[in-house]
Amino acid sequence: MTLVTRVRWGMVTVLACAVGTYAVDKKEAPKASTGQVDSGSFGVFIGGQRVVTESFTVQQSNGTSTIKAHLQELKNSTAVGQKSELQMTGSGELVHYEWTDGSGSLTVAPKDEFLLEKITTGSASKPAEQPFLMPNTSAILDNNVFVHREVLAWRYLATNCQPANGPLKCQQGAVEFGVLVPQDRTSMRVRVELVGKEKVTIRGTERELLRLNLKGEAFAWALWVDDKDQFKLIRVAIPSDNTEVVRD
Prior knowledge:
mainly beta, 3 helices
């Protein structure tokens, strides 16, 4: 299987975009699979101290991908924590998103030509509604949910990159994506750009990973994915917050 096929294969399984849309030769595109695409956990470290664990799964069934995440603070292990579930179709369209922390919740779903967010708080008898004039292919990039960054990285790689005599080559310059941040009740534009291979030390072991830069108006993150293992997200660095996220 060629490198570009592996990228597109990872893409079809998480439903960021349909393989048939982007494959050079649709006859060579693999059929969508059913089952688990990725699972595991990320440790979130601030100043070198682990503060949060995010457990996640990415699954595909009947043409829909479901991305679940559960965030648990180490200092408050008895609390419910944050839970989220994102569902997408085979063409990258949002089906449903929901998030809760035990005291409040929110949902996002398409409605007509826009996205509609509904927010419920503990004291509210009726959810507040906020529409966003955004297409249903907009990415969900919620606060503190790092598996959403993995899905965005897969989308970028599948739609903007191809191999050139071996190494992965991507569109020159950063690529913009429209994203929704439900917990902040806001939308924004973010930019993703391939940097290239870098040697990174993960838990004392040096690994060669593929680096991507993820930037917005008020943030700059570095993401490292493993191009030898289905482009899984391995590490995230957020220098401005002295924060590091590492796959367990």
